[in-house]
Inverse folding.
């Protein structure tokens, strides 16, 4: 019986030491990280900190669908060019293009392989940007309501990326785009 008592006491001591040791790092003072406000103004944040730099296209064909599923046609858009959506009070503008779109707390471009081509489309009314939507090639007429998209009738617009031309990679990309 004494042997069992000794093993029990040793086990309790070992567990106590392990418990104490596991909390040591948390008690050590943590180094202070400089706040973003302490950074010099001349330092610009990276353009796409979690992914690759964004490629560009010369133009893209975007199919547009209204809130009740009506076809509003296809428009050829160029980057940062504002185009009126026929039959509506809205205009659209393509502001970003991704070859491999993904989400990591923000949109990112995972690489230059054309795995998930996507265009970011701003929705504009009376010269004011109401919000934006995504035109995916791999997912037709994605709607933004569940993702905090634009309010009002503009939230009923949905887009699909049909085609694109003139794909160009940033200078840091290789000739194959990888």
């Amino acid at each position: 019986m004494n042997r069992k008592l000794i093993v029990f006491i040793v086990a309790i001591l070992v567990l106590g030491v392990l418990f104490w040791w596991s909390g040591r790092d948390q008690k050590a003072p943590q180094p202070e990280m400089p706040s973003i406000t302490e950074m010099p103004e001349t330092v610009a944040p990276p353009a796409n900190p979690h992914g690759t730099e964004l490629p560009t296209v010369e133009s893209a064909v975007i199919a547009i669908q209204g809130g009740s599923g009506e076809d509003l046609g296809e428009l050829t858009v160029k980057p940062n060019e504002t185009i009126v959506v026929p039959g509506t009070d809205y205009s659209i503008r393509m502001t970003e293009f991704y070859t491999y779109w993904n989400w990591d707390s923000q949109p990112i471009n995972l690489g230059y392989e054309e795995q998930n081509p996507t265009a970011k489309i701003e929705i504009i009314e009376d010269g004011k940007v109401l919000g934006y939507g995504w035109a995916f090639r791999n997912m037709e007429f994605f709607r933004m309501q569940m993702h905090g998209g634009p309010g009002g009738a503009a939230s009923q617009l949905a887009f699909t990326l049909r085609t694109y031309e003139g794909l160009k990679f940033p200078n840091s990309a290789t000739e194959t785009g990888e």
